[in-house]
User: Fold this.
Amino acid sequence: MEITIKNSETSKTILEESKVKWKFFMRRTMWAIIIPFAGGISFLIPEFTGTNQMTTKTNGNAIIYDYHIDLAIGVGFIMLAALYSFNLLISKISFFDRAHILSNKHKLFSDESILYVTDECIKYEDFELKQEIKWSFFSHYKLYKNYLFLIIIETPLSAFLIDRRLLSEKDFSELLAFVRTRLVKK
Assistant:
């Protein structure tokens, strides 16, 4: 099998693929924000609704004080979610800054790229890069929107994307059938 994909709008494709990669990444990552935030709220509800009746107890001669551990845990979870959200915001800005720099380079020099898909590897060429990736380097694949994600490691941000719209239906079906023989769908 040999499929050649020529792209005359590489700068535009870089930006589109970056958006798709980020959306796909966030689809899985949002749970790392939602779960701690919801957990934090669930710890805070008794504090603010007055259902936490454990302010002071006497047990014989001993007095037991509630130091509002649930308040501390709730605030801690919410701070964890906020910190992770901030980290994701910084990562997003950095990720898209790099995508814009690369896109602008392609606009300046050459907006063309070629992708060769063969039985042994995928070859990518543009004005400054020639890259060859053997199929054994990819761990699995995913279909998302109009893209075939060839995932290198567990994070989709490092995935190699093939835009379905750049191929004919026949070529895409042939490519997908081939990928299914080489990689696991997750």
About this structure: Helices lie at 10-29, 31-49, 69-108, 169-182. The beta strands are 2-7, 56-59, 62-65, 113-118, 121-125, 130-134, 140-144, 147-151, 160-163, 184-185. The longest strand covers residues 2-7. The CA atoms of residues 121 and 134 lie 4 Å apart.
